[in-house]
Amino acid sequence: MGLNIIVCAKQVPDTTEVKTDPVKNTLIRDGVPSILNPDDANALEEALRIKDEHPDSHITVVTMGPPQARHLLLECLAMGADQGVLVSDRALGGSDTWATSNALAAAVNKLGEYDLIFTGRQAIDGDTAQVGPQLAERLGLPQVTYVTEFKLEGREVTVKRALEDGYELIKLQLPCVLTAIKELNNPRHMTIPGIYDAVRSDIPVWGVEELKIDPDKVGLEASPTNIFRSFMPAPKSKGIILEYDTAEEAARILVEKLNDRNVIA
Ligand SMILES: Cc1cc2nc3c(=O)[nH]c(=O)nc-3n(C[C@H](O)[C@H](O)[C@H](O)COP(=O)(O)OP(=O)(O)OC[C@H]3O[C@@H](n4cnc5c(N)ncnc54)[C@H](O)[C@@H]3O)c2cc1C
After folding, report:
1. Which of 7, 10, 20 is the pocket-test mutation for ligand 1 (most atoms within 8 Å of CB)?
2. What is the C-alpha end-to-end distance of the chain, expressed in Å?
3. 133 lines ligand 1 (CB under 6 A)
4. CA 233 / ligand 1 centre spacing (Å)
5. Looking at ligand 1, which residue's alpha carbon is closest to its atom 34?
6. Which has the higher per-residue pLDDT, 139 or 20?
7. Residue 153: how many CB atoms within 10 A of its CB?
8. What is the C-alpha separation between 95 and 101, in angstroms, rounded?
9. What are residue 193's phi and psi, to 5 degrees?
10. For 93-106, how does the pLDDT look when each residue is reduced to its tens digit (9 = 90+)?
């Protein structure tokens, strides 16, 4: 029994190089090294493992982003995905999570038949972990986030969900949305034959027109959340190391310093 699986994957700046546009308060993406969002690699890997078990399954990777996000799709195809779709349009620029989930839901509906949607738990740039659950909401689907284990029996899925202080086991029926975290699996690498096929594959680009989406539902202007200011926090001042002959001496000096700084009375 093959499944139609959709994976939502985001191209993110390689975190060591984040810069923000001081006027628009959005991230500067042009020319910044980008990577496949780590949790999305786990999402794709889990889909590929289902396909290993059920070879007649089909995996489509959907990404919303600027034209250069096409590279992410080539990477996913070279890992083993069957199809990539780039959702890209200037009108989508600056979309917050609400607007992003509207655009992704429109792309999923345009793809038609699906049994399972995987997203990552969180993108390492926006860091909101909101898009997966919002997408499920838009599509009226059950969802489980923070998935660390996945089992499929017929159309029933059993997942292990990570909590802060433990796990919960959840059973649900397909179709559903699951958000992946790194504990779920170790993503495979691209293969040479995979790269060979990927660069020859046709990747459709869908904008607002192709998605037939109301422009009031996407983009910076339509986004209820506006990033007022984004900035790199000032680097913390270097700490001081108290080195004294005895612990008592060090403790006495520490108390003095904390006192001087009114940390303790
Ligand atoms: C520094 C910063 C702070 C931000 N703060 C907010 C905020 O507080 N509220 C807000 O609404 N927006 C915020 N945004 C905008 C937000 O990043 C975008 O809306 C983004 O498209 C989705 O949110 P996210 O990055 O938090 O993704 P998350 O919700 O963390 O992503 C979860 C998963 O959804 C999928 N996904 C997310 N984006 C895409 C995409 N473009 N294409 C395909 N799949 C995708 C991926 O599988 C991803 O792992 C912020 C952006 C930045 C750069």
Report:
1. 10
2. 70
3. no
4. 20
5. 131
6. 139
7. 8
8. 9
9. -60, -35
10. 989 999 999 999 99
- pLDDT by residue (tens digit) across 56-93? 999 999 999 999 999 999 999 999 999 999 999 999 99
96 alpha carbon – ligand 1 mean position (Å): 7
CA–centroid distance, 245 to ligand 1, in Å, is 52
Cα–Cα nearest to 52, from 114, 8, 2, 113? 2
DSSP characters over 35-98: EE-HHHHHHHHHHHHHHHHSTT-EEEEEEESSGGGHHHHHHHHHHT-SEEEEE--GGGTT--HH
Residue 233 has pLDDT above 80, yes or no: no
Mean pLDDT over each residue of the chain, to the nearest integer: 92
Which superfamily does 4-217 belong to? HUPs (3.40.50.620)
Asked if 84 and 74 count as a contact pair (C-beta separation under 8 A), the reply is: yes
Instruction: Provide the percentage of residues in the chain whose pLDDT is more than 70.
Output: 94
What's the pTM value of the predicted model, to 2 decimals? 0.88
**Domain residue spans in the chain?**
4-217
Whether ligand 1 lies within 6 angstroms of the CB of 119 is answered as yes
CA of 98 to the centre of ligand 1 (A): 9
Query: Residue 242 C-alpha to ligand 1 middle, in angstroms?
Result: 43
- Ligand 1 atom nearest the C-alpha of 26 is 53
| CA gyration radius, the chain | 22
Q: Cβ contacts of residue 148 below 8 Å, gap of 6+?
A: 160, 161, 162, 167, 181, 183, 184
Starting from the edge strand earliest in sequence, which strands make up the sheet with 58-64, in order? Answer: 166-173, 156-163, 143-153, 176-180, 116-120, 4-8, 58-64, 83-87, 205-206
Atom 14 of ligand 1, nearest CA residue: 126
- Cα(183)–Cα(237) distance, integer angstroms: 34
**Ligand 1 binding pocket includes 115 (Cβ within 6 Å):** no
